[in-house]
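Memo subject: From amino acid sequence to discrete backbone structure tokens
Keywords: amino acid chain, backbone geometry, structure tokens, three-dimensional fold.
Body of memo: The sequence and its backbone structure tokens, given next.
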Amino acid sequence: MRKRRIAVELFAMMIAVTGVFHGSMNVNAATKKITVDQTYENATKIKGKTKKGCVVKVKIGKKTYQSKVNKKGNYSVKVSKLKLGKKYTMTAYQKKKVYAKKSFYAETKNIKVNAFTENDHIFSGYAPSKAYIVLKCSGKSYTTTASVSGYWKIDTKKPLGRNRIEMKVYKKGKVIAKYWKEYQKESSVTDKNDDQNNAASAVHKHLYNIPVYKTVHFDEAGHYETIISSGSYYEKEVSHDICDTCVKDLTQEYINGIKDGTYKKVEIPKNDENTSSFKSRDILDDYKEIRWSNDMPLYEDFIAYGGWNHTCSDHKLTEQTETIMAYFPGAIRKDWIVDQKAHDEQVVIGYQCSCGDIHKVENN
């Protein structure tokens, strides 16, 4: 009895483990993914990966932009300029049904500090996502970590006053951006031998030696090139006219006579009622070596005459389906060749003095 109970318990455990294993396998197999490459403020193109054949859509403001995913699962959507810290959602559709979604933010590559005064004790702004920020003021250090959107906030509890503020942004242990601001204090000189105190302000001379950068976006640049693809052959089903009396394929005889020049030796009477060359062209255009010209007889006149040797005149004809190797001429298209990919660059727009005054560079 004891052995039987142990066997039953082992069997139940095996079923449970198998169910868990298969359950996890099914969940993983059904996982639907879409990725979005890192995007930055003012970017006009969003790239990423998802299932091939899908259509991806993203809403920017009141407008929705979309693009088709290529065979390798890559997509690229051209959009209006992205705003810093704003949340966007890229959605992939498969046969008009939602396949997967991914939310993302447009980040900054440096640090952005919102305006503040000497009376403020809360500082905020934007930095790269999940970056570690250290603020130093009045001999004390304050730290925080930027959110997924890049937004950060530090509360020093006490007003800044006219103290120097320094900030460093770290990513993977390395400093990737710096910010500092210093208030210029007035110093006074007192003549102790004089009953009146004469205050003299220290004269400050600007030294513009701190570069000021601005993120500039450069659109994609390129040119069109004309591409001519080679022709190819393919199987095509066509209808041929067969003489019921002699079982001759009159359509093939017409084609052969045009190819070998028989039509130049045999005069086929013209019927004034047959004015269109559409059917003749339709038959001959499947052959690479034949190009229609007006000195060729119309197919309808050829049939009415009974063939090149006039032997099937007034005979009853039957249509028969034949398979031929038809020629498709090469196509001409224009392809866009990218000379320079869209990208963002840090451009110097001026230089800053230690007092905070900025001297802008011309043409910026």
Summary: Residues 16-30, 184-202 have pLDDT under 50 and may be disordered. Residues 2-29 form the longest helix (28 residues).
